[in-house]
Design a protein that fits this description.
The protein is an all-alpha fold. About 65% of the residues lie in helices and about 0% in strands. It has one domain: Orthogonal Bundle (Arc Repressor Mutant, subunit A). The two termini are about 15 Å apart.
Length: about 60
């Protein structure tokens, strides 16, 4: 799912591509952010930070 986030897909597009309910995709994205210790912030975009983690750690 993180690769789909990196490709720029929205939660709705990810849900559609993976044949999931939107709420399932949203919850999974939220869990990924939590696992990466990326909390909501007004200053940073968690999606971008998650992609940076993916690029760094491969």
């Amino acid at each position: 799912m993180l690769r789909l986030i990196a490709a720029g897909l929205s939660d709705a597009a990810i849900a559609d591509q993976l044949h999931l309910a939107l709420t399932t995709a949203e919850r999974t994205c939220t869990r990924i952010f939590a696992k990466l210790d990326l909390h909501p912030s007004q200053h940073f975009d968690r999606r971008v930070l998650a992609v940076l983690v993916l690029l760094r750690e491969g």
